[in-house]
Amino acid sequence: MLDLILPLECGGCGAPSTRWCETCSAAIQVAQDEPHLATPRLDPGVPVFSLGRYAGSRRQAIVALKEHGRTDLVAPFAHVLATGIHHLHNWGLLDLPLTIVPAPTRRQAARRRGGDPVARVATAAVAAHPDIVVVSALRMKALVRDSVGLSTSARERNIAGRVLMTAKDLPCDRDVLVVDDIITTGSTARESVRVLQTAGARVAGVLTLAAA
Fold first, then answer.
1. Taking the CB of residue 191, how many other CB atoms lie within 10 A of it?
2. How many helices (H) and strands (E) does the chain have?
3. Is residue 118 one of the residues assigned to a domain?
4. Is the residue at 11 inside a domain?
């Protein structure tokens, strides 16, 4: 009866009667050699890693999570993010204890989405790990435009100087990993890293769910 009133469909492919199908689950799983290095046009000065391409089921699921309120997709993305963090640690690229800082989002977008989906995914990913904490240490200033459709130079101008540090007690004696949903030009990542490093944070890298 509920399916007739509010039809279920997979957040990745739209398959009926399921919120997340096995095919889409397999499509976003993290392989043994992932995450891979990404090369955004604007270099943030630290390694940037991506868990996959912004395409197919991964793209559709990220859009559903961000724009359509599909909070049920937090769990599968939290799983792949946790696996990616685990691999980076095993490869010696991250030390514990670790602080995860979600990339900043526009306040207007966060209000429309009922919160920050990246912060939700990150928090769920490390909920059971006592040596990893999530600190929402960054925020966007007002009047930052939506970056969709902007060129690389326009994105850079749009974000420059508009990321602010909000956490006054961010630990400076541990690795910090910036986490975001998508890496495109690298403008948000670069400004986020700059602000964190200016505050004394030891930024080890950036990890994203997808690379466009």
1. 23
2. 8, 8
3. yes
4. no
CA angle 199, 201, 207 (to 5 degrees): 125
Task: Kindly report the number of other CB atoms within 10 A of residue 58's CB atom.
Answer: 21
In angstroms, the CA 62 to CA 174 distance is 30
Give the DSSP letter string of 91-111.
Answer: TTSS-SSEEEEEPP--HHHHH
In a domain, 62, yes or no: yes
Neighbours of 181 (CB within 10 A): 20
DSSP structural state of residue 99:
E
In 3D space, the residue among 102, 81, 100, 99 whose CA is nearest the CA of residue 163 turns out to be 102
Give the domain range for residue 130. 30-211
Q: How many domains are there within the chain?
A: 1
Residues 50-82: pLDDT tens digits? 999 999 999 999 999 999 889 999 999 999 999
Query: Is 145 part of a structural domain of the chain?
Result: yes
Question: Residue 210: which H helix or E strand, with range?
Answer: strand 202-211
Q: What's the average model confidence in pLDDT over 192-212?
A: 96
